[in-house]
Amino acid sequence: MQKKAAAITPAVQPTPIVIVSCRDSQGRDNALTVAYCCNCSFDPPMVMVSIAPSRFSHHMIKETKCFVINLATKEHEGVMQYLGTKSGRDEDKLAKLGLKTEDGRTVNAPVLSGFPVNIECKVVDSIVTGSHEVFVGEIKYIHAREDLLDDEGNILFDKLELL
Ligand SMILES: Cc1cc2nc3c(=O)[nH]c(=O)nc-3n(C[C@H](O)[C@H](O)[C@H](O)COP(=O)(O)O)c2cc1C
Question: Which residue ranges form the domains of the chain, and what is each CATH number?
Fold first, then answer.
């Protein structure tokens, strides 16, 4: 197998593209598209999302120390593009898209009702990594569409066409 040096970029690909929703200390809700997201602990269950300080969402997560990861599927392509290119600094993106939300059960952040899986997380740590800040979130509650669960409550990921 012939190999040569590739450009040095974040090269673990593909990663799922998710929508992270959050709320600031004033009660204002927002959401952004995030590609830098992965599992980071089995016990306790933890995930991490990496968000640049320039994003409007960044200060919101800093303030309320929680977020929700909403798993996006093929049907959310347009929403993903919108939330990933417009900023909550300039407009109420959730209202603009008419996205239905409900309050998190365990966190002070909105859950995007139209997404099949929503993972409520409390920030337990964060680390600034170059251009981004990684927020480590302990999973406190997972909402999943009924038809995506087996008898033990495990999510049937092969039924989801993740972005
Ligand atoms: C496919 C895609 C993936 C993205 N991944 C990330 C990411 O992992 N971290 C991040 O900080 N921004 C990421 N962005 C950019 C933000 O979603 C974008 O800057 C957004 O407008 C920020 O919204 P806000 O200012 O309302 O927080 C991504 C955008 C797209 C389109």
Answer: 18-150 (2.30.110.10)
pTM for the whole thing? Answer: 0.98
Measured CA to CA, the distance from residue 160 to residue 72 in angstroms comes to 9
Is the Cβ atom of 56 under 6 angstroms away from ligand 1? yes
Residue to mutate (ligand 1; options 13, 33, 67, 87; most atoms within 8 A of CB):
33
Confidence tier at 35 by pLDDT (50, 70, 90) = very high
**How many CB atoms within 10 Å of residue 109?**
27
> What are the two backbone dihedrals, phi and then psi, of residue 46, each rounded to the nearest 5 degrees?
-140, 150
What local confidence, expressed as pLDDT, does residue 130 receive?
97
| Ligand 1 centroid, distance to 123 Cα (angstroms) | 19
